[in-house]
Each structure stands twice: as structure tokens, then as C-alpha cells.
Specification:
Elements: H1 3-86, H2 90-94, H3 99-112
Length: about 150
Amino acid sequence: MESEPLTYAVIGLVIGLIIGAGCYRLLSKSQRQLASLRQTLLEREHQVASLKNGVSHQLSSVHESLAAIRQETDELEKKLQDDAGQWQLDKLTHHPAELSDLRLMNETTSTSGAPATPRDYADGQNGTLSEHFGLKDKDTSDDTATPPRY
């Protein structure tokens, strides 16, 4: 009878080891998955940080470019005013914004004296844009004149 409690103790110990090994195996899988998810999260955070750094660098370069363009524009405007003062163009030295108004006035005066719009066909029957150019003999001619088409 002494062997029965010892047998139960050994069987209990073996069953406990099996259950412990199974639990360790299951828990270690979740720990590995958790570790891999943490690693993936760290990689993504690193990617986001590098993208933010790239965007901030790009924005700063655009800001620097805009500042340079503004500075060049100011220099050109000052040079324009100096040149206008040199040529004694009082209207331009006082109001440089009126340049566009002067340009518009020049465009309207040039369009009023523009030539008439071209016609589709030449006057008469013998023009190079006539419908019958090159199709009829020179000996035959119609006495009816066709009016010019506009």
C-alpha cells in the first residue's frame, strides 16, 4: 500500500510537468507575437519620424525659396523705380502699380487699328483660295462674279 501514494505523487508530478510545459508553450507564442508586434511598431514609428523629418526639410527649403523670390522681387521693383526716375517718368515713379494699366491701354489702342479678319475665299473666280482654282481650264471663264465671302 505504500506504493500507491508514491505512484499517485509521481503521476501527479508528471501531469503537472505536462500541464506546465503546455502553458509555457502557449504563453511563449503570445510573447513572441507581442515582441514581433512591438518591433513592427518601432519600425513604423521610425518610418513616420523620417517622413516628418523629410517633410519639414522640404517645407523649410520652400520657405527659403519664397524668401529669395520676395527679395529678388523687391530688388527688381526698386530697380524699376530707379530706372523710371532716371528717365523722368513721374507717373511710374509714384505709382508702379499703374504699369498694368499702361499695358492694357497699349493693347486696346493696338487692337483698334488691327487689320480686318481674313476672308475664307479670294475675291473673284481666279483667286488661289477659290473653290475652282486649278480645276477649270484657263480658256473657259464664267461671266458671273461671285461675291466675296466673309
